[in-house]
Design goal:
This protein has a 3-stranded mixed β-sheet, covered by helices on one side. The chain has a two-stranded parallel sheet with strand order 3-4. The longest helix has about 30 residues. The chain is elongated. Helix content is about 45%, strand content about 10%. The protein is mainly α.
Amino acid sequence: MDENIHAAERRDRRGHRLLALTGLVVAALLASTWVGLFSFLGANAAFGTATDIQDRYIPDPGPMELALPNLSELSRVYTTDGVLLGILTERNSQPVKLEDVPELVINTVLGAEDADFFEHEGIDFSAIARAGLADLQGGQLQGGSTITQQVVKQNFAGNEPTLERKAAEAVIAAELERRYSKEEILEFYMNSVFFGANAYGVKAAAEEYYGKDLDELTLAEAAAMVTPIRNPTLYDLRRNPEVVRRARNAVIDNMVAEGFVTEYAARLAKAEPVRTIPHREFEQLVPQVIKAVNDEILNNPARYNLGETFTDAKRSIFGCPAYDTECEGGGGLNVTVTLDFALQNEATRILRNWFPPGPGVRPTGAIAMVENATGAIRVMAGGLEFGDDLEAGQRPYDLAGKGRQNPGSAFKPIGLAAALENGWTLRSYWDWTSPQELDFPGSSKPWKCNNFSRSGSGIRTLESALVASTNTVFCQVSLAVGP
């Protein structure tokens, strides 16, 4: 415990010294270009000008909150029996602990972006000097930021191409390294940086480009994967593989120079072409259920404590939109639905057998099962693959969940079950005369009920009435058991 306290104190003292040094470097850089002005103004005026320079270019990071933003995560939908049905997301962000990132991937990121990350204290003074000279000479602001400075630029200082912003970036980077450990900063960076193709973080990038877990990546794959960090459009692994190959090989050369990999391993990796898999959407085992989950939560956000508005609910479910760089957090939900996956598969099998797929207009059907005791939906299956019958411009339609066809005589077995539960038997006799006028509770007009044949009279058992689908009998049944 004492050692940790002393280490924190040393880091705090070092951080304050670094902040002071940063300020001196920026002020010296600016003042050195104005020596003639200082000589003309005199010592007092020169001191005042230097103070003005410090006030303008060097912010005080002390009062700044500088909390690393929460990262969006994927939300997942499970069945009651633990089957993952699908993913709910807009931004493909899959944060992982630094300890779960293989050393190869860490070294590749460092080799590409900041090989001295664990040696420096967050600031590249030569980059600041280049930026200052370019700004004062009217040129373009230069790059060369450390990983810590990149975190600051993306989350605290912005990317305006001015010396004021670059100086602020350096000062805030020094303060960030005083407040957080190297491991915390690197973990945040590796999980938040954009790798192109809507992939944020190393785990999402590995799945997007290669369909692999991080520990399955080769040196050639890892080195190519990190190139879009600099410019996602230029270093597009799918569209510009030759451009990426050259950049990848430069990353590998850096890794050799830093001792991260051997020359032999580098030579083999550089000989490989840039290979990727096509973009794949997240698999959804039952797409109509995933859509139903979306609709239910988005239309009733307060019911699930996800906020009061559609926007609140959307953020809670999907996390941040891919394009919104100001957004943070959201997602990470585990949604459990009442579906029984084994029953769902059996219902789908039955429907496929009844209505085999084929060309042209196809008849279809749907099966929905609700547990009487709880109201839980156990099955929601359609006779067609969700969306496979679509033409251009059409939207997929969930017949099981959204279908509004009249159930017609299919409802008679439900009426029969209610009659049996209320003491009637299959051998009980009922008047099947047609037409009939029945007194309906709460209505001043009689209920007119007809059989398909429109006419006829006599009695028949409840069983035979079901076989013959006798409307007038089941009209009476509904009144007897209660509509």
